[in-house]
Amino acid sequence: MLQYLIILLDDTSTSYCHYENSRTEKNLIPLDALKAGIRFGMMENLMIQFVYPDYELPSEYKEAIETIDHSKIVSSLCEDESLRDEADIIVYHDWTGLSNGKYEEAKSYVLRTTKADLFERYMLLKDVLPKVSRLNIVFTDVETFTEEDIDKYKRLLHTLAEHIEKLYVDGKMPQLNLLTDRIMLKEINNCGAGETNITLAPNGKFYICPGFYYDDETDNVGDLEHGLDIKNKQLYQLDHAPICRHCDAFQCKRCIWLNRKTTLEVNTPGHEQCVMAHLERNVSRDLLHRIRKHGTFLPELEDIKEIDYLDPFDNRDNWQ
Predict the structure, then answer these.
(1) pLDDT for res 318
(2) Is pTM beyond 0.85 here?
(3) Considering the domain boundaries, does residue 211 fall inside one?
(4) What is the DSSP code string of 103-165?
(5) What is the total count of domains within the chain?
(6) Inside any domain, residue 282
(7) Does residue 66 form part of some domain?
(8) What domain range includes position 204?
C-alpha cells in the first residue's frame, strides 16, 4: 500500500540513493503539475517528500510546497541557505563536504560514496558520528563489489562497530545504517519503491523511483491525468521476492532500481548487494553482543542468529 510520494522538483534534483543523476540542465516541474501532485498526495493520504535542486526555487513554488506537510531532501551544496536550514535530510556527495559539515540533531544525513573512497576515508566517520543522530551511507557502485573486497569491507565495518560501541557506552546513540539498523529491526525495511512509495517526475509522470526516470523517461507507470498504472505490481512486494522473503538482513534496502540493473529483475537482488548486506548483518550481530555486555542496551531487542553464508542463494536448500 502506498505511503509516500516522492516529488522531483527539477531534473537536477539531488540524488539521495544508489542511482546517478548527471543532468545539469534545469527543468523545473511546471507549477500546475506541482500543485496537481500535491493534490494527488492529499487524496491518497500520502506523506510527500520533495527532492530539491541546488538553486533557489521561485517564491510561488515555495508557497505551494508549504500548503502540505512534507519532508525536504536537499543537497549540502544547495545555494538556498534557508532551505538547507529547513531540510529534513541533507545529502553529501563527497567526503570533504561531510568532514566540514555543520550538523543538527533533528536532521538526517546521507553520504553517497564509492567503495574505494569509503575504504580509503572511513576513519573520517569517527569525527562525524558523535555529531549526528543519523547517517546513511549509500554506495554509488555496488555492482563493482568483488570477492577481493569482502575482507576489506568486513575489517572496515568492525572498526566502525568498535567506535560505535564506545559512543553507546558514553551515552551517545548515533544511527549508522550499515550497523545499527539491523540491531533495531524485527522485519525487513527495504526501499519500498513501487509498493510503499512512488515518484512524480518534472514531466508530470509517475515512476517506480527517481532512478527509473533518469535511466529512461519512457519507463513511466502513469501520469497525473490518468493516475497510476503499475504493471505486475506484485513483483514489487516482498512476498513475490524469492530470495528476499527468506532473508533476515533486515537493514538491506533491497533497491529495486539496483535489482533491475544487476539482474534485470526488480524482485531479485544481485550477488553484490546480498553479500554486502550480510557482511553488515554479521558485524551488527557482533556489535549487539558487545554492547549488551556493557548493560547499556534495551532488553527487548532480539538476538541475531549466527549464519554460515553471505549470499542467501547459497542457503536455498533451507528455504521453507
Answers:
(1) 66
(2) yes
(3) yes
(4) --TT-EEEEEE-HHHHHHHGGGHHHHGGG-SEEEEEES-GGG--TTHHHHHHHHHHHHHHHHH
(5) 1
(6) no
(7) yes
(8) 1-84+195-229
